[in-house]
Amino acid sequence: MYELFENPTVIQKYGGTSLGDVERIRHVAKRIQETYDSGVKNLAIVVSAMAGETNRLVELVAEVSSNTRPSVVDVAVSAGEQVSVALLSAALEGLGLKAEPLMGFQLGVLTTDSFEKARIRKIDTEKLKQAWAKDCIPVVAGFQGVTDCGYITTLGRGGSDTSAVAVAVAVGADFCEINTDVDGFFSADPRVVNDAKIIPKLDFEVALEMASLGSKVLHTRSVELAAKFKMPLVVRNTFKDNTSQRTIVMNSSESEVLESPVVSGVSSVKNIAKITVSGPSHQAELISRLFQQINDCAINVDIIVHDRLDDEERVKLGFTVEESEFLRVLEVIDALKQTERLAQLEVKSESNLAKVSVVGLGMKNHHGVAYKVFDTLNTNGIDIKMISTSEIKISCVVRSEDCDLAVIGLHKAFIG
Ligand code: ADP
Ligand code: ASP
Ligand code: MG
Asked: Among 17, 160, 216, 218, which is best to mutate for testing ligand 2, by the most ligand atoms less than 8 A from CB?
């Protein structure tokens, strides 16, 4: 791929498993050396924390105190990337290369101040250009940034992909390479579906939908950024050589869109909870009150189903949230019920759910997809709790224990 460009500028990102131990870090350093020696002199590396390290830090903070301020959490959880930067820089120098280790704040990765889920606003490219001018390879800490006031932030779990794409966009790279522990972007998680197929070329729109519906091989925001700035992404395996299969995520031509498969992939996400609130229809104000309060608590609501039958005097509203937000939502509803006018609200809730989705551009021009989804889930004895659709996806909420079976069944039905 590098040979397709003259003096290419490339950003390579290495994930946690790729840097999981000393041997792997040395392997990654050799791979970087090969890339550099092949003529890619404008090369910058973005790294994640070593596998398991961010989880360890998250748990450690939770153990010390259950209500640590997010800004303090970020100081701890961003530390994993710092260690990776140092170890990989040391490994590169051990090979005789010059490395420039850079934390987010040193590079100038400016973010919003929404701690634990900050968004990158701007990246200063001066340090990268200076490093290249000195024949150094910058090694940048992913996942972390800094606010205008100098506070450390993190970008949300899996956020190193976003750091890499943001750096690529800032320096106008030819492409951004996401090196990970699988061969590319597959038609389903290859750890769930044994015969999932690698997708050699994937449109931004499908990649974005699949990532946001649970295909965690790419952080959702990284695809959003790449799509916005038309930055091609190459997803490939750290442990395989240059000739091995991979995925290129880029814009499809019009004819490619027309020929797109009806379903390109199946995604799933676990740890979802569903809440259903019903009450007399004259209490429709409950909907806006409820959502206002949930919004004030910065809780993200996903699927919403509103039901009001003309011949019934009741209004019914079902919605899903991440399981980690479940208790807080119930508290908000309880508080609402304390007010006299909303006392008659009836609330039902269910946790341990999952959302399974089929995604494909071809769905825009084909019918019968919904029928096939329901039929497949029915045949497998899987109860559908909720449904949501868009132009290019159909999502069903099912019990968590049925999630993998649903993914395998839908993959078999649509992809083979
Ligand atoms: P990294 O540490 O390199 O960032 P992640 O664990 O974040 O890696 O993402 C890679 C993992 O994503 C794979 O090991 C795989 O289990 C999972 N995954 C989920 N859906 C897909 C998919 N559609 N294609 C490829 N991998 C997927
Ligand atoms: N280390 C961070 C995490 O585990 C960021 C990343 O790996 O992309 O979420
Ligand atoms: Mg990741």
From this structure: 160
Please give the full DSSP string across 43-81, using - where no structure is assigned.
EEEEE-PPTTHHHHHHHHHHHH-TT--HHHHHHHHTHHH
Q: How far is CA 150 from the centre of its chain?
A: 26
Whether ligand 2 lies within 6 angstroms of the CB of 143 is answered as: yes
> Residues 198, 259: contact at Cβ < 8 Å?
no
pTM score above 0.85: yes
Q: Which of 208, 249, 259, 265 is nearest to 362 (CA)?
A: 259
Q: Quick one: DSSP state of residue 186? A: B
Q: Is 35 near ligand 2, meaning CB less than 6 Å away? A: no
Q: What is the pLDDT of residues 195-223, one digit of tens each?
A: 999 999 999 999 999 999 999 999 999 99
Q: What is the CATH number of domain 2-181?
A: 3.40.1160.10
Return the closest-CA partner of residue 82 out of 39, 40, 47.
47
Tokens linked to 185: 């972007």
- For the packed helices 79-94 and 53-64, what is the interaxial angle rounded to 10 degrees? 150
Q: How many residues does the chain have?
A: 416
CATH superfamily of 266-414: VC0802-like (3.30.2130.10)
CB distance 171 to 125 below 8 Å: yes
Taking each helix axis from N to C end, the angle separating 22-37 and 79-94, rounded to the nearest 10 degrees, works out to 60
What are the sequence ranges of the domains in the chain? 2-181, 266-414
CA of 65 to the centre of ligand 3 (A): 27
For 35, the token pair is: 């890339």
Give me the torsion for CA of 251, 255, 259, 265, rounded to 10°.
10
Distance CA(167)–CA(350), nearest Å, equals: 41
196-200 CB contacts, 8 Å cutoff, 24+ apart = 196/411, 196/415, 197/415, 198/245, 198/246, 198/247, 199/247, 199/264, 199/265, 200/245, 200/246, 200/247, 200/248
- The helix (H) or strand (E) run that includes residue 152 is strand 152-154
Q: Is the CB of 160 under 6 A from ligand 2?
A: yes
Tell me the pLDDT tens digit for each residue of 46-78: 999 999 999 999 999 999 998 999 999 999 999
Distance, in Å, from the CA atom of 357 to the CA atom of 265, rounded to the nearest integer, reads: 8
